[in-house]
Design goal:
This is Cytochrome c. By secondary structure, the protein is an all-alpha fold. The protein has 8 helices and no strands.
Amino acid sequence: MKQLKLVILLLVTVVFFMSGYAMANKEVSNPEAKTKTKMQSKQITAAEINLPTEIRMALIKEMVKLETDMQELLSCLAKGQSKQAEETAMSIYQSFIMKQELSKKQLEKLPKLLPKDFVQLDRNFHKNAKQLAEAAGQNNFESAMNIYNQMTSACVTCHKNFAAKRFSGLAVQSN
């Protein structure tokens, strides 16, 4: 029964990431596309955050990399590949695409442009990746999967709160 639950969880997670990956690729391939959104039940969306194009593209590039790593991580966990899972989780923890892509001046502006809740979700996500790497390194797959679920939940929360237009299926219904 425990294995069945794990298989179902893995399938749901793969489907979630594949749909997000398709959406992200559309946006990355057309960086000139302008995003116009309406305020949706007090949610902040990516357009309302109003990131300059270069910063927005670097953020999307990092999200696509994280998505790829999360898919790889899921595969490693499902196969019991502790070393590969540990390495992939550390890759997520150490993801520095934004630092590599942006100038020093842009990086200094970044904290003022991003909502505090977004920054906190991001910090927790990367902290969880490090914890998952440690759990995988100890062959503690139950703990690693629990942490993976927390990370996936953080992805959903972030997409729902800060990218509602791109991930409209996650939008909160207003009364």
